[in-house]
């Protein structure tokens, strides 16, 4: 049967296609009559049925195709003769037919799907009309860095990293489509390192291609622009990529897990420095160029070189941790001690660093003054 297209205005992205004329000489798939009604002198009025679909990420007006990345949830509705009282929908993906008037359906995997709706008229009209659309729904593979639940949603090659139950950070409510970048190269994406769990539950840092960003609005809904170590041995040491909010902890955030142990895998940098009561996400460095934005390479009194965050970078551990202090670098405190030095102290007024001390009571509660004249845990 021939189908006529019609666009509905008012939905986010939606369309009506179908326009299938009714009639016939016998019962249809749902039963019915001859498709005719008493039209008086003008003859019988044919049954008509059209197929509406809403929720498409894109809609091709010329081809009448509703498309979007997997998983794609769309809402169908019949539009046609008021005599049509019952409907039967099949969605082309192997799921059972449904008898709802306006069903909502989830297409889980990429592919092209045919859709059919059969409408059956009630009294006084009788008969049915069958409206079929080949390839009405097209589900596209999720692009690199997009949210996923299954490997098959990512198309050929990419896999769904940190999918539910994989052992990644709790912030990964869904996974991300990724491909490895062992050579440090990604096409249209950023090669970054990320801590992930393997099938045995062991956590290791691996290099992946993820969606590139500069600010949060560059990322898909549910993702934020995060700073991560580069997976390439050349070029910038740090790159920006889209991740779920809270998936990694920025430099300056606490890196102690629920068991109270230091956990570098929680840090974007991979390093949990034993500073403060809860540990501080940081990174080893030699110069400021080794550190991400909003941090500086600090030479601490114990001989370490670590990237320290400026105090304005949330989460500001200095505001919560009695063993840390927002301090001016390269200067002696009121007791004449220099807690740490940085290359360019004018680049930021204050950095979050271990609190300088001379007595244990300066590190209370929970701390003591260590041999390097900074507060440490008791």
CATH superfamily of the largest domain: Immunoglobulins
**Overall morphology:** elongated
- Which series of helices and strands comes N to C? EEEEEEEEEEEEEEEEEEEEEEEEE
Give the helix/strand class: mainly beta
Count the E strands. Answer: 25
* Domain tally: 3
Number of helices: 0
Average pLDDT rating = 81
Q: What is the CATH class name of the largest domain?
A: Mainly Beta
CATH architecture of the largest domain: Sandwich
Q: Which band does the percent of strand residues land in?
A: 35-45%
Using the coordinates shown, work out and report the CATH topology of the largest domain: Immunoglobulin-like
Strand order of the largest sheet: 3-4-9-8-6
Question: Which keywords apply here?
Answer:
mainly beta, elongated, 0% helix, four-stranded antiparallel sheet, disordered N terminus, 378 residues, Immunoglobulin-like, single chain
Would you kindly provide a written description of the structure presented here, covering whatever features stand out?
With 378 residues, the chain is mainly beta. It has 3 domains: 14-140, Immunoglobulins (Immunoglobulin-like), CATH 2.60.40.10; 147-244, no CATH class; 275-377, no CATH class. The chain is 0% helix and 37% strand. The chain contains no helices and 25 strands. The protein has strands spanning 14-21, 48-54, 58-60, 65-69, 72-80, 84-90, 104-107, 111-121, 128-140, 147-148, 159-161, 175-178, 190-197, 203-210, 223-229, 238-244, 271-273, 280-282, 295-300, 305-309, 324-327, 340-342, 351-354, 367-369, 375-377. The strands form 9 sheets. A 5-stranded mixed beta sheet has the order 3-4-9-8-6, with no helix packed on it. A 4-stranded antiparallel beta sheet has the order 1-2-5-7, with no helix packed on it. The protein starts with 13 loop residues before the first strand and ends with a strand. Residues 1-18 and 22-41 have low confidence and may be disordered.
């Amino acid at each position: 049967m021939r189908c006529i297209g019609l666009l509905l205005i008012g939905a986010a992205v939606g369309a009506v296609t179908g326009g299938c004329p009714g009639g016939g000489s016998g019962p249809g798939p749902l039963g019915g009559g001859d498709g005719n009604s008493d039209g008086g002198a003008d003859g019988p009025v044919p049954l008509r049925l059209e197929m509406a679909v809403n929720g498409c990420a894109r809609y091709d007006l010329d081809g009448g195709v509703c498309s979007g990345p997997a998983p794609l949830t769309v809402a169908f509705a019949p539009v046609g003769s008021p005599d049509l009282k019952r409907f039967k929908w099949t969605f082309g993906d192997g799921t059972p037919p449904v008898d709802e008037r306006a069903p909502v359906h989830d297409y889980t995997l990429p592919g092209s799907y045919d859709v059919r709706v059969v409408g059956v008229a009630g009294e006084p009209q009788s008969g049915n009309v069958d409206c079929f659309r080949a390839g009405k729904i097209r589900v596209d593979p999720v692009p690199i860095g997009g949210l996923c639940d299954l490997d098959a949603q990512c198309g050929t090659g990419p896999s769904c990293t940190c999918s539910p139950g994989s052992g990644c950070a709790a912030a990964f409510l869904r996974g991300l489509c990724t491909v490895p970048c062992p050579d440090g190269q990604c096409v249209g994406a950023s090669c970054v390192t990320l801590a992930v769990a393997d099938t045995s539950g062991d956590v290791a840092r691996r290099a992946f291609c993820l969606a590139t960003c500069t600010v949060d609005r560059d990322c898909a809904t549910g993702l934020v622009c995060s700073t991560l170590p580069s997976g390439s041995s050349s070029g910038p040491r740090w790159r920006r990529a889209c991740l779920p909010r809270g998936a990694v902890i920025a430099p300056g955030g606490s890196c102690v897990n629920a068991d109270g142990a230091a956990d570098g895998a929680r840090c974007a940098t991979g390093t949990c420095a034993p500073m403060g009561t809860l540990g501080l996400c940081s990174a080893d460095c030699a110069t400021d160029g080794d550190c991400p934005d909003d941090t500086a390479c600090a030479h601490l009194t114990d001989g370490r070189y670590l990237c320290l965050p400026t105090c304005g970078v949330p989460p500001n551990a200095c505001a919560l941790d009695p063993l840390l202090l927002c301090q001016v670098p390269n200067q002696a405190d009121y007791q004449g001690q220099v807690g740490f030095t940085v290359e360019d102290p004018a680049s930021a007024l204050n950095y979050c660093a271990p609190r300088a001390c001379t007595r244990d009571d300066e590190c209370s509660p929970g701390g003591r003054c260590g041999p390097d004249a900074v507060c440490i845990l008791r």
